[in-house]
Design a protein that fits this description.
This protein has 85 residues and is mainly β. It has a domain of 40 residues. 0% of the residues lie in helices and 25% in strands. It contains no helices and 4 strands. It has a 4-stranded antiparallel sheet, with no helix packed on it. It is globular, with a radius of gyration of 15 Å.
C-alpha cells in the first residue's frame, strides 16, 4: 500500500533512524539478500515478510536461465532473512 498504512501517510512513526551505513562492514545493516540486477519497485514489508520484484539475473533455480521477472518473498528470522519457497 502506498503511504505505509490505511491512512496513506508516508511519514514513518519510527524515531532515530541510522543516518549512515556501510555494506562492507555491516554497520547499521540488519540483513541483506541476493536478488537480481534490477528491481521494479520498492520493497513491500508486511507481517514479517519482505516482497520485492526483480529480474532473473541471479537465478534461484539454476535450470531457469532465461530472462524473466521474479517476485521474491523473504521471511524475517531471529538472525537473518530467509527466502520463502
Amino acid at each position: 500500500m502506498f503511504g505505509r498504512d490505511q491512512t496513506r501517510n508516508a511519514v514513518s512513526p519510527e524515531t532515530n533512524p541510522p543516518i549512515s551505513w556501510n555494506i562492507k562492514t555491516g554497520q547499521n545493516i540488519k540483513w541483506k539478500a541476493e536478488i537480481g540486477g534490477f528491481t521494479f519497485a520498492t520493497p513491500v514489508v508486511a507481517n514479517g515478510l519482505v516482497w520485492i520484484g526483480t529480474n532473473n539475473e541471479n537465478p534461484r533455480d539454476p535450470t531457469v536461465k532465461e530472462r524473466a521477472g521474479v517476485l521474491m518473498c523473504f521471511r524475517e528470522g531471529p538472525d537473518r532473512i530467509r527466502l520463502i519457497g
